[in-house]
Amino acid sequence: FELMDYIGNDINYTVTETVFAAFYFDQRYKPSFTQKRMKEAGYLGRKSGRGYYDYSSENTPKANEDRELGKKILWRVLSMLINEAADALFLKIASREDIDLAMTKGVNYPKGLLAWADEIGIDNVLKQLEDLQAEYGEDRYRPSPILKRMVKENKTFY
Length: 158
Hints:
By secondary structure, the chain is mainly alpha-helical. 59% of the residues lie in helices and 0% in strands. Helix 4 crosses helix 7 (122-136) and helix 7 crosses helix 8 (145-152). One of its GO terms (molecular function) is 3-hydroxybutyryl-CoA dehydrogenase activity.
Protein backbone atom coordinates (compact mmCIF):
# COMPACT_ATOMS: atom_id res chain seq x y z
CA PHE A 1 0.00 0.00 0.00
CA GLU A 2 2.90 2.30 0.69
CA LEU A 3 4.17 1.73 -2.86
CA MET A 4 0.74 2.58 -4.29
CA ASP A 5 0.72 5.78 -2.21
CA TYR A 6 4.20 6.60 -3.47
CA ILE A 7 3.28 6.03 -7.13
CA GLY A 8 -0.09 7.72 -6.69
CA ASN A 9 -3.44 6.02 -6.45
CA ASP A 10 -4.67 7.94 -9.51
CA ILE A 11 -1.79 6.63 -11.62
CA ASN A 12 -2.12 3.13 -10.19
CA TYR A 13 -5.84 3.05 -11.00
CA THR A 14 -5.30 4.38 -14.54
CA VAL A 15 -2.63 1.74 -15.22
CA THR A 16 -4.92 -0.98 -13.86
CA GLU A 17 -7.77 0.23 -16.09
CA THR A 18 -5.40 0.21 -19.09
CA VAL A 19 -4.33 -3.38 -18.39
CA PHE A 20 -7.99 -4.37 -17.96
CA ALA A 21 -8.84 -2.87 -21.38
CA ALA A 22 -5.73 -4.36 -23.02
CA PHE A 23 -6.86 -7.82 -21.91
CA TYR A 24 -10.30 -7.27 -23.47
CA PHE A 25 -11.96 -6.67 -20.10
CA ASP A 26 -11.09 -10.11 -18.77
CA GLN A 27 -12.53 -9.98 -15.26
CA ARG A 28 -9.29 -11.34 -13.84
CA TYR A 29 -7.73 -7.91 -14.44
CA LYS A 30 -10.65 -5.76 -13.29
CA PRO A 31 -9.52 -2.82 -11.13
CA SER A 32 -10.49 -3.18 -7.50
CA PHE A 33 -13.35 -1.16 -6.07
CA THR A 34 -10.98 0.17 -3.39
CA GLN A 35 -8.64 1.64 -6.01
CA LYS A 36 -11.52 3.44 -7.68
CA ARG A 37 -12.87 4.84 -4.40
CA MET A 38 -9.43 6.09 -3.30
CA LYS A 39 -9.03 7.96 -6.60
CA GLU A 40 -12.56 9.41 -6.48
CA ALA A 41 -12.06 10.58 -2.90
CA GLY A 42 -8.86 12.37 -3.87
CA TYR A 43 -6.77 10.11 -1.63
CA LEU A 44 -3.96 9.96 -4.14
CA GLY A 45 -1.16 9.13 -1.72
CA ARG A 46 1.86 11.18 -0.77
CA LYS A 47 1.17 13.90 -3.32
CA SER A 48 -2.25 14.67 -1.81
CA GLY A 49 -1.20 14.10 1.80
CA ARG A 50 -3.47 11.10 2.16
CA GLY A 51 -3.89 7.72 0.55
CA TYR A 52 -3.82 4.38 2.27
CA TYR A 53 -1.77 6.24 4.88
CA ASP A 54 -2.16 9.76 6.28
CA TYR A 55 0.82 11.93 5.33
CA SER A 56 -0.46 15.17 6.84
CA SER A 57 1.79 14.92 9.89
CA GLU A 58 5.55 14.60 9.89
CA ASN A 59 5.34 11.07 11.28
CA THR A 60 6.21 8.34 8.83
CA PRO A 61 3.44 5.75 8.50
CA LYS A 62 4.08 2.55 10.40
CA ALA A 63 3.40 -0.76 8.75
CA ASN A 64 1.03 -3.19 10.38
CA GLU A 65 3.25 -5.76 12.07
CA ASP A 66 0.63 -8.50 12.34
CA ARG A 67 2.72 -11.44 11.16
CA GLU A 68 -0.25 -13.76 10.59
CA LEU A 69 -1.99 -11.17 8.44
CA GLY A 70 1.27 -10.62 6.58
CA LYS A 71 1.51 -14.35 5.82
CA LYS A 72 -2.07 -14.38 4.49
CA ILE A 73 -1.39 -11.38 2.26
CA LEU A 74 1.84 -12.90 0.94
CA TRP A 75 0.12 -16.22 0.24
CA ARG A 76 -2.71 -14.50 -1.66
CA VAL A 77 -0.35 -12.38 -3.76
CA LEU A 78 2.03 -15.28 -4.41
CA SER A 79 -0.82 -17.57 -5.49
CA MET A 80 -2.08 -14.96 -7.95
CA LEU A 81 1.42 -14.38 -9.35
CA ILE A 82 1.96 -18.12 -9.75
CA ASN A 83 -1.40 -18.33 -11.52
CA GLU A 84 -0.32 -15.63 -14.00
CA ALA A 85 3.02 -17.36 -14.58
CA ALA A 86 1.22 -20.67 -15.14
CA ASP A 87 -1.14 -19.00 -17.59
CA ALA A 88 1.81 -17.55 -19.54
CA LEU A 89 3.15 -21.09 -19.84
CA PHE A 90 -0.29 -22.49 -20.74
CA LEU A 91 -0.70 -19.87 -23.50
CA LYS A 92 2.81 -20.61 -24.77
CA ILE A 93 3.93 -17.03 -24.18
CA ALA A 94 7.18 -18.19 -22.62
CA SER A 95 8.94 -21.33 -21.42
CA ARG A 96 9.01 -22.23 -17.74
CA GLU A 97 12.73 -21.42 -17.65
CA ASP A 98 12.21 -18.00 -19.22
CA ILE A 99 9.32 -17.18 -16.87
CA ASP A 100 11.40 -18.04 -13.81
CA LEU A 101 14.48 -16.27 -15.17
CA ALA A 102 12.43 -13.12 -15.75
CA MET A 103 11.21 -13.18 -12.16
CA THR A 104 14.59 -13.85 -10.56
CA LYS A 105 16.70 -11.55 -12.74
CA GLY A 106 14.13 -8.97 -13.80
CA VAL A 107 12.15 -8.56 -10.59
CA ASN A 108 14.77 -9.90 -8.16
CA TYR A 109 12.48 -12.52 -6.65
CA PRO A 110 14.33 -15.08 -4.53
CA LYS A 111 13.16 -17.87 -6.85
CA GLY A 112 11.09 -18.29 -9.97
CA LEU A 113 7.33 -18.46 -9.56
CA LEU A 114 7.00 -21.88 -11.16
CA ALA A 115 9.82 -23.33 -9.06
CA TRP A 116 8.16 -21.72 -6.04
CA ALA A 117 4.87 -23.39 -6.99
CA ASP A 118 6.60 -26.77 -7.06
CA GLU A 119 8.13 -26.07 -3.66
CA ILE A 120 4.90 -25.08 -1.91
CA GLY A 121 2.74 -27.52 -3.85
CA ILE A 122 0.70 -26.81 -6.95
CA ASP A 123 -2.26 -28.42 -5.19
CA ASN A 124 -1.94 -25.83 -2.40
CA VAL A 125 -1.83 -22.97 -4.91
CA LEU A 126 -4.89 -24.33 -6.72
CA LYS A 127 -6.81 -24.72 -3.46
CA GLN A 128 -5.95 -21.15 -2.40
CA LEU A 129 -7.19 -19.75 -5.73
CA GLU A 130 -10.38 -21.84 -5.68
CA ASP A 131 -11.08 -20.82 -2.07
CA LEU A 132 -10.57 -17.13 -2.89
CA GLN A 133 -12.77 -17.38 -5.97
CA ALA A 134 -15.50 -19.11 -3.94
CA GLU A 135 -15.26 -16.55 -1.13
CA TYR A 136 -15.19 -13.40 -3.25
CA GLY A 137 -16.91 -14.59 -6.43
CA GLU A 138 -14.31 -12.78 -8.53
CA ASP A 139 -12.67 -14.07 -11.69
CA ARG A 140 -9.35 -12.49 -10.68
CA TYR A 141 -8.86 -15.71 -8.69
CA ARG A 142 -9.86 -18.04 -11.56
CA PRO A 143 -7.19 -20.76 -11.73
CA SER A 144 -5.30 -21.33 -14.95
CA PRO A 145 -6.32 -24.57 -16.66
CA ILE A 146 -2.73 -25.79 -16.51
CA LEU A 147 -2.80 -25.74 -12.69
CA LYS A 148 -5.96 -27.86 -12.63
CA ARG A 149 -4.51 -30.33 -15.11
CA MET A 150 -1.19 -30.58 -13.27
CA VAL A 151 -2.89 -31.31 -9.96
CA LYS A 152 -5.14 -33.90 -11.60
CA GLU A 153 -2.12 -35.59 -13.21
CA ASN A 154 0.09 -35.09 -10.15
CA LYS A 155 2.72 -33.19 -12.15
CA THR A 156 5.15 -30.41 -11.30
CA PHE A 157 6.71 -27.65 -13.40
CA TYR A 158 10.23 -29.06 -12.97
